[in-house]
Write a structure and sequence with these properties.
6-stranded mixed sheet, homodimer
Chain lengths: 388, 388
Amino acid sequence: MAAPPAIPAARFGERLEAAQGRVAERGLAALLVGVGPDLRYLTGYRAMPLERLTMLVVPRTGPYRLVVPRLERTPAGRSPAGEAGLVEIVAWDETDDAHALVASFVNATAADGASPARVAVSDTLWALHVLRLQAELPNAVMELGSTVTSDLRIVKDEAEIAFLRAAAEAADRVIGQIAAGRLIGRTEHDVAIEVRDRLIAEGHDDADFAIVASGPNSASTHHEASDRVIAAGEPIVLDIGGPLGGYCSDITRMVWVTGGNPANGPDAEFRRIFDLVRDAASEATSAARPGVAAERVDAVARGIIEAGGYGERFIHRTGHGIGLEGHEEPYVVAGNPTPLRAGMAFSIEPGIYLDGRYGVRLEDIVVCTADGPVALNRAPLDLLVVDG
Amino acid sequence: MAAPPAIPAARFGERLEAAQGRVAERGLAALLVGVGPDLRYLTGYRAMPLERLTMLVVPRTGPYRLVVPRLERTPAGRSPAGEAGLVEIVAWDETDDAHALVASFVNATAADGASPARVAVSDTLWALHVLRLQAELPNAVMELGSTVTSDLRIVKDEAEIAFLRAAAEAADRVIGQIAAGRLIGRTEHDVAIEVRDRLIAEGHDDADFAIVASGPNSASTHHEASDRVIAAGEPIVLDIGGPLGGYCSDITRMVWVTGGNPANGPDAEFRRIFDLVRDAASEATSAARPGVAAERVDAVARGIIEAGGYGERFIHRTGHGIGLEGHEEPYVVAGNPTPLRAGMAFSIEPGIYLDGRYGVRLEDIVVCTADGPVALNRAPLDLLVVDG
């Protein structure tokens, strides 16, 4: 379980160049990237989003600048792009107007002295910064940075897939560890803490979420974890994940705890919906080949569950892209005609939810390759019937 | 270390009412609050910020609505404000236009059918949602939600201070545990993992940051943790924290590891800058009384360090407010004339950084009360000289 090799610095140079190419191509004055996944993608720089402005300026021509609060100069300089000299680090002081500084770099892109017409800002930039930049650039029309970065980020290279695979396999191990341990008599919250500890122990940078939904809570799609005590004769949804080397895991498996008494096993309807969800997951995964529309993959999963009579109970999309963000493009949802391409990575996670009784969801991370779909998770999709 | 009692549901009703009062008073059509600290403050609802829109609409008159993706309906309904029936939960489906839905509620506030002129959006709302809402409300001028919420959130009530105190005391214990353990021969990263585990074990919801900066790294203000191995005869900055019951801890203490050999103790200049920083912290804390301007508290800390000859090496503000966010108002910084009021909580964290050699920072969370300043951290500000 050695960590995959770091993304080479040269890759960040290529990414910055590709982003600048798209800025020019789209007729934008500049791309303005705040702290978040686009910044990590383009520079490797990880920072917490804060009220102090940190912003990469990718103008349509000329040097890339990383504007940072003075006290972030050292870590910014040590980021992959900083260390490789790909970006010029511009530090501002506590009493400077950082937004005006960024605006000055944008205005400098207008060779004729006219105000720039269009600027893109990263999708997760806080309103705090968006509105201040709008005030400093009153004539600029803003659009989302994903118009520039999404097409770049949506196709993962080998180094990125290595991280996604390492994250998936680490999450697989945690599922195995949790299913093998004691569950009955513990609160969901207590199990969730164990999940988080184990994700970190298995190399995750962070444990973003640990959904432990037992008994009737399993019918709630985004239940997190409560003080409910797990009892024999119940299903548990385990939906867990977080970043490893920046790239996210996200796996869902179903456990059923019997307390060692086979009479406490799943009933016939639970078995029926479980099998439907598993079939939907398997078939949707098989359908995820280059050229197939994302919405088609959703339709495959949905069709199976509808044919089984539970269409109304599959109340969410089939999946979401995954990479530096837990949820990113491509979304596997009705209405998204994006054709899948080799290198795209996404979840396949159908579910059926019977309010007040129980629910089933299964989730793998799948990569579309030229040779067909590859599930990064290796844990079997079976119902994990355990003593608990 | 029992957790403090939960914020009573009635408090959320009062907060919503106060927010609506300010919306009307400021002549706004509505306050639009995305996932984040303002939403937690007004409703108690905690969710992860996602591409799917979750938004509280506080119109100038009429009912409060919490617009959520359908699959979040159950957890939203279980939030304190949801459970108490204070907000109407409006669920949208995967193929609905959630931003248009929110815009329709805003437009409904314009009694005369005219477009509403001004709308406030929460400061941490993503650009993704800001720009879409601007597109749906083309005639609305947007301003920051903090113009409505900051004045409410800036003064903490007793229940909130109880959480801040519990978080501070938990972080105190972790500092003590780390200083008492083995440090020499371990990487900063390894110690940071232990810090995170211990913060969680001491009741934190999450361990947002664990700065472990040893030797020359201590001179970098926002160094996180690296593969550098800690050696005898070095200082370590421990700057750690995260939320407990939603309210944040943030403490900085200095450790010096000797390896058991007194000859490896701190040198004279380190002692000198340590004493200056400690004096600056103590005096700034003493100055933090009702009616004193926030910038005055900064000036007190800065004055002491300047008088000691290290003014140029104190390269950041003295502190930041703290509550549901790790950094929030009031900022203890030059240029902020806000007079302190009883109930305000903030960090006092002066520092001196000698590039390439070492640095010192000390940080307490302080509450301004009618009877004077109260440090919530109880760990002494002393230099922790340990064998390591």
